[in-house]
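hey team, just a heads up i'm posting the complex here instead of the shared drive bc the drive is being weird again. everything in one block, sequence lines first with there labels, then the predicted structure for the whole assembly after. its two chains so it's a bit long, scroll down
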Amino acid sequence: METTASVHTTTVASLSEANRSNILQYLYHHGISSRAQIAKALGLTPAAITKITARLIEAGALEETGDIEGRKNRRSIGLSLDATRFHVVGVKFARSLVQIGVFDLAGALLGLDNLPPVTDGTIGETIRDIHRRVNLLLDRDPRIVAIGMAVPGPYLREVGRIAVVSGMQGWRKVNFITEFTHAFRVPVFVEHDARAGALAHYLFDRESGGDLAYYLVGEGVGLGVIDHGRLFNGAIGAATEIGHVSIDVDGRLCDCGNRGCLERYCSTPAIHAMLVEDGQVVPDAAAMSHTQACRALFAKAHDGDERALAMVRSVGRYVGYGCVTIMNAFNPRRVVIGDIVAEAGEPMLREVRRTVADRAIPELVDSTEILLSGLDADAAVAGAAAVAVTQFLERPSLFFDVSGAS
Amino acid sequence: METTASVHTTTVASLSEANRSNILQYLYHHGISSRAQIAKALGLTPAAITKITARLIEAGALEETGDIEGRKNRRSIGLSLDATRFHVVGVKFARSLVQIGVFDLAGALLGLDNLPPVTDGTIGETIRDIHRRVNLLLDRDPRIVAIGMAVPGPYLREVGRIAVVSGMQGWRKVNFITEFTHAFRVPVFVEHDARAGALAHYLFDRESGGDLAYYLVGEGVGLGVIDHGRLFNGAIGAATEIGHVSIDVDGRLCDCGNRGCLERYCSTPAIHAMLVEDGQVVPDAAAMSHTQACRALFAKAHDGDERALAMVRSVGRYVGYGCVTIMNAFNPRRVVIGDIVAEAGEPMLREVRRTVADRAIPELVDSTEILLSGLDADAAVAGAAAVAVTQFLERPSLFFDVSGAS
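-- predicted structure starts here --
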């Protein structure tokens, strides 16, 4: 068990690394800046900034960019973290869908690979395929500095395993740490998919701010919470599992052991089951995949079919119940709803907002923005890339020889 | 809206203050230590430690304690933060109960005052009484350096108001910031009661560790979460409102606007209502206060009355549902259940653990401790004191003249 001792020592274990990271993050978020601007913003002395940035420039992390205009029209030299000089690989594991993308540090997509659909029987084969494809990318692109992976949660980060994967428990047998950590020439970082999505919005969307929840409603229902610029993980990395928070303690049984889990009411498998049972709105739903069935429903609702619209609104109500819980539990400034179910669009979002207006504390209703993600579901692989970018910014000594810096 | 810019700048705004605070916290948690031990633990240079501690000694925050034994039997001078030299006042506002206590920094109770019971009509009078009594304490005890207040949540910290107080909305009209912030010779800090309870366990109980949830089940139901040594507040301070998280979206209506709020099933007013409806287990329940009725029930269960035991178990089940949600949402290492309902003791706790074993993810069941608070309900005023102690440790420049330190 963690003691207060280790809490305090790890927090400030390496002030040098923290200073380096703060400088990289400042340049990442603010663009070209002078040493004086950085020193002022970070509360560091000019001497410290000069010393640390000299090492970072020497190590190849930063570069000088010539004169920029400073205070009182004095010219000063700008520093830059060029986001196009470093690439990362993002691997997104959905249950049946694995995608591999290459991105630059700013989140620009440089290439995307869709793997063949995965079933419980082909997980081993898929893992081998990922090794092969990622190695190929690394051989071809020397700018790649890290690999991020996004996996369905709850992901036990210390163990390397996913604890529950409703409907596809085969993934539980994969140990992501032993399988991937030392498999490539660059470091690998694994994160829960909804947290990866939160990081993607935090890093790649300038509007997001530092108090943000990414509410993933897709094949599973997940949540990533960024509080004052930091991901909320919990003691063993299993926090913010909104999909397994019960909305009805006497409700539907879930694979996790709980009853009435939110995931059982508004994930794509839950919607698919509803469509099969209904039999009318999407008559051939039984023959479709979860995603296909949901997209067929959303298309019909989009065309104005009243029954389809009513079903979308009913889904929106459940997404809204989850949203009320997110607000009462985590109080973010912004809730971004993403993944497949977000494709239902405005009619769903309207119902979420109505449910929130009815049920959340008025002060929270007024101070919380609820919107749909700008990233489409396929692009959620950007979250995996954001996991790698986060580590690059937070742990520069893993990527550069900064020995001697302070 | 907070931008990423302000997130980064405030985090490292004052490295000097952070260093001072880290030194105070280290000494607070570890007792007498040498400069070398502190430097090593905090990753600071010996020169920096010498400079900062010199200022803190000069300002009266720390003192040297003579030789202690160091590495390789070398003697070195010890530094100490003497917890008995500084006192704090804690004011706890429950709905009908206000208590004022004086504590030292280590949480030792030096004096306790119970105010007359409060009703919606006497809130103004109570506020005046608090001013008078606190000023009297300040006059008598020059060691008092700060006042902490614990109020029922959700408390809107930027505004100074409580957003919802089920059953006693009069408290909503009190603005704690304008009422108290500049009212006394020492600074005042206000915190949500369950968070104050979490701080009390974190600071005053060595066993607690840094990943801790304090689950207050009393006149209201609240939660304080400490994650890696930091309180989780949310964007406007309204996070961790477990009492208003729904356990049944079609359930009982709550004052907050939501349905099925946990608070409606296991708070003392909910238990009281159950007892009045039942009419047999505690026949004169209708004439009692919420707390009295609950204590009568617990006493009867303690004496082996089967119906009383069944009711306590039923309450325990609801407390357990909340506990499962706490684990899935916040993943603490330890959940400490406190306040009036915790007085139900072992039969209640057993039912909570059974519910958790049934419904939580096995990995979480194995890695989470659930126990009853060592602090009894009256002593929860210690939480208010812990709010003041936390500020004393985190913001030393508010309490000492440390100008010139770095």
